[in-house]
Specification:
- The complex is a heterodimer of chains A (112) and B (110).
- Chain A is mainly β and 112 residues long.
- Chain A has no helices and 11 strands.
- In chain A, the strands form 2 sheets. In chain A, strands 2, 4, 5, 6, 9, 10 and 11 form a 7-stranded mixed β-sheet that branches.
- In chain A, strand 4 and strand 5 form a beta hairpin.
- In chain B, the strands form 2 sheets. In chain B, strands 2, 4, 5, 9, 10 and 11 form a 6-stranded mixed β-sheet that branches. In chain B, strands 1-3-8-7-6 form a 5-stranded antiparallel β-sheet, with no helix packed on it.
- Classes of the chains: A mainly beta (112), B mainly beta (110).
- Chains A and B meet through strand 4, strand 5, strand 9 and strand 10 of A and strand 4, strand 5 and strand 10 of B.
């Protein structure tokens, strides 16, 4: 069966510090991968998606970036965090042509 | 951009009652999906309905889709305390991506 992991679960970082969130998927190959951010009490905002290794599409211009160094690994990064980067970050995967996205447990990021 | 919009924003019902929430969207879609999110957790995929389908059932869930009105509804029958969660609709417009609404928060009172 397929599983998706995200870490860390929670993170508190000062403004201006770097960020690296990791997401890995097991039990599938060549998944489409997604990074979302959810503000408190709101819906999901798509940040990045990837349909293959090294292929990243950005939805929202900002100080975040994403990379996919391996087929089942998706990384969200920032060189300098802003207060507005606080939120709940969710990684998701779907198989090409598959039904529905499957979400990781999320990382709650607080920037102080 | 956010395409789906859920209505109502919040819903409080008694255990055993039915809960109905609606979703409206703006552009043509390949399919529409409903997800559940318990507080502080990831989203769980509930059900997918394709653009050529009008109704779909899964356990206590019933989803309808009206492409002429660009709307969908999710009905949860015989609600339980464990159904307390936020529910999101998401539209798939043929481009690998889902657009999520802001969600409906459902509270089931014991």
């Amino acid at each position: 069966s397929q599983t998706i992991h995200q870490w860390p679960a929670t993170l508190v970082q000062p403004v201006g510090s770097p960020l690296s969130l990791e997401c890995t998927v097991e039990g599938t190959s060549n998944p489409n991968l997604y990074w979302y951010r959810q503000a408190a009490g709101r819906g999901l905002q798509l940040l990045f998606y990837s349909v293959g290794i090294g292929q990243i599409s950005s939805e929202v211009p900002q100080n975040l970036s994403a990379s996919r160094p391996q087929d089942r690994q998706f990384i969200l990064s920032s060189k300098k965090l802003l207060l507005s980067d606080s939120g709940f970050y969710l990684c998701a995967w779907t198989s090409p042509g598959g039904d529905g996205q499957y979400f990781g447990p999320g990382t709650r990021l607080t920037v102080l | 951009s956010q395409q789906g919009e859920e209505d109502p924003q919040a819903l409080s019902i008694q255990e055993g009652e039915n809960a109905t929430m609606n979703c409206s969207y703006k552009t043509s879609i390949n399919n529409l999906q409903w997800y559940r999110q318990n507080s502080g957790r990831g989203l769980v995929h509930l059900i997918l309905i394709r653009s050529n389908e009008r109704e779909k059932h899964s356990g206590r869930l019933r989803v309808t889709l009206d492409t002429s009105k660009k709307s969908s509804s999710l009905l949860i029958t015989a609600s339980r305390a464990a159904d307390t969660a936020s529910y999101f609709c998401a539209t798939d417009a043929h481009d690998y991506k889902l657009s999520f609404g802001a969600g409906t928060t459902v509270t089931v009172r014991a």
